[in-house]
Amino acid sequence: MHREQTLQLPAHSRIDNLQGQVFGIVMAAFGITILKAAGLITGQTAGLSILISYASGWSFGVVFFLVNLPFYVFAWQRMGVAFTVRSFISATAISLMADFMPHYIQFGDLNMFAAAAVASCTASVGLIALFRHGASAGGLGMLALYIQDKTGFKAGWFQLAVDLCIFAVSFAVIDSLAVIASLFGAIILNTLIALNHRKDWYVAQ
Length: 205
Hints:
By secondary structure, the protein is mainly α. It has eight helices and no strands. The chain crosses the membrane at residues 21-41, 47-67, 79-98, 110-131, 152-171, 177-195.
């Protein structure tokens, strides 16, 4: 005779989720700030927004906010109101912080590959924190999470595939060496997310 046991998983409190979301926002925005200072891009909607910003002269924050809008409709329908609202808040805060940070944090001469590596490590930690606390940085991150939850195909690998398309276009906008350094950073970022964002490793919900 087998006895069934029901495990009560601990839940994140509102404070847990708030601090995790704030941490994720700051780290993601700081990573973008490093990339912009080095003249680099990243992948996903953030990378596309940086690329449009370089080509048009528009503010990154405004472009990032606008590019994300269609994805909120998808998230609202497929991933729920709470996730969509948290992601909207996170993406908006990242947009604002990435525009304001350069006024308070300046860098000297940056090696492109070193900047790409550090920025990618920083941003990946921020994104994982957002994912863990029921949010995202908007855009393709929401779609990647949905695909991972429904199919098991890792969000990091999906994002890397999209990134390759963005980098192919970026050769027409920025220096080829900067594109290579940016791709190097994107591989680091998405590999870290793919290896470290595993729902089955977590206990709290």
